[in-house]
Amino acid sequence: MTTDGPSPRTLDARPPESFEVEGGFVVRRYRVSDAAALRDAVTESLDHLRPWMPWIAHEPQSVEQREDLIRAWISEWDAGTGFAMGIFAGDDCIGSTGYHLRSPEGSIEIGYWLSSQHEGKGIMTRVVTALTDNALFLPGVTCVEIVTDEANQRSAMVAKRCGFELAEKFTREREAPGDKGIGLRWRKMRL
């Protein structure tokens, strides 16, 4: 088998598999049994997510497709190449987040989305704050990054509220319909 591009980065240390944030929300590693709850969260927020999430072009997906996706995420977690997590209110998935290793060595990137009915309540700010704190305790991680498109002001406000500073503004390919093609790289350093 041949691959294009560099080998994926790996992280030797692992973030916590589960943690709680204020309000009774649990952020945890996905399980295959979460497939239906994840499908429901995405399906009810399709119009809300469509402008900002490139993967929305492949929606809607069946429970079986979600199970396959979660299995891939489990493999990435086990290999240390990616860390997808769900945000749960009881048994209901209300969003998704995780750590990506797309940034240079020593840094880790946080990605996130929240269902439309849960926005505007400070949930994502609490989740990203906890994710950032957890990441900065990992050996070898000296900074956390969030990359947003300039048009996605809600996502940028989360970064600002969590104490991230704008480190770079750059031109990039438009990945989703609402994108301007101007990326903003937000950064928070270990103190």
Kindly report how far apart the N and C termini lie: 43 Å
Percent in helix: 25-40%
Alpha-beta classification: alpha+beta
Radius of gyration: 16 Å
The major β-sheet equals: 8 strands, mixed
Total beta strands: 8
Could you walk me through the main structural features you see in this protein, from its secondary elements to its overall organization?
- With 191 residues, this protein is α+β, with helices and mostly antiparallel strands.
- 28% of the residues lie in helices and 29% in strands.
- The protein contains five helices and eight strands, in the order E-E-H-H-H-E-E-E-H-E-H-E-E.
- The chain has helices at residues 35-44, 46-49, 63-79, 123-136, 153-161; strands at 18-21, 25-29, 82-89, 92-100, 107-114, 143-149, 165-171, 182-189.
- An eight-stranded mixed β-sheet has the order 1-2-3-4-5-6-8-7, sandwiched between helices.
- Strand 1 (18-21) and strand 2 (25-29) form a beta hairpin.
- Helix 1 crosses helix 3 (63-79).
- The longest helix has 17 residues, at 63-79.
- The radius of gyration is 16 Å and the shape is globular.
- The chain starts with 17 loop residues before the first strand and ends with a strand.
- Residues 1-5 have low confidence and may be disordered.
